[in-house]
Amino acid sequence: MTPRADRGVFVTFEGGDGVGKTTQAALLQEWLESGGRTVVRTREPGGTEVGVLVRDIVLHHRGEVDARAEALLYAADRAHHVATVVRPALARGEVVIQDRYLDSSVAYQGAGRVLGRDEVRRLSLWATEGLLPDLTVLLDLDPAAARRRLDAADKPFDRLEAEKAAFHDSVRAEFLALAAAEPQRFLVLDAARPQGELAAAIRDRVSRLLDGGADPLRVGAPG
Ligand code: TYD
């Protein structure tokens, strides 16, 4: 791969809970760093100090959070994170690998809930001044299979994870619809495939991106 010094590359991982985003993000980081790239590994919600506080509200508050308030909390986390972590890293020419970004907001806050996908997307684009990833890896998995993985890992209580199966099915459908609408940005992979195969497919796509000339600062069309 040819390192491009002038601007960085922004890669996000998306998918339901328990599909293996964190594992694949870590493998990609390892591979890029062994090739001499500087990588910033981060996540939403919770990629900054402010974000950790917001994450605590949205994920661990046990009472009802109004839908608009919830969407604004994720957007607030995102605005601060992009302004203080993501954009500075891209400006330094680094690779940003991020667990979850605006597609999670559209899929979770926009699907099966009170808010529409377009307004949720517009809110995020406003919050981030239009920053879209160069590549979004969607790890697609049947929510029932993901649930079994989470149970096996004995993960702690998570308000959204506890919601019912129908919600997770609609989140999955929403992610797939987002990917279909932006095929150039998305790489959709069957997350039931072996870890090594998934990692290789992701490396292949990222190395083409690093050789190519994506524009991480391009502005997304609102809605
Ligand atoms: P994640 O950090 O992947 O959870 P964990 O590390 O605990 O497995 O995501 C936390 C939850 O936040 C997940 O259920 C999806 C949800 N979420 C939204 O609803 N909207 C958003 O914009 C984001 C970024 C996450």
CATH class: Alpha Beta
Count of individual domains: 1
CATH level 3 topology: Rossmann fold
CATH-level-4 superfamily name: P-loop containing nucleotide triphosphate hydrolases
- Give the class from helix and strand content and strand pairing: alpha/beta
Shape: globular
Measured by DSSP, the beta-strand proportion falls in 5-15%
Report low-confidence residues grouped into runs of 5 or more. Answer: 1-5, 215-223
Percentage of residues in helical conformation:
40-55%
Mean pLDDT: 89
Which ligands are bound?
Answer: thymidine-5'-diphosphate
Order of neighbouring strands in the sheet with most strands: 2-3-1-4-5
CATH architecture term: 3-Layer(aba) Sandwich
Biggest pleated sheet: 5 strands, parallel
How far apart are the termini?
34 Å
Q: How many helix segments?
A: 8
How many E strands?
A: 5
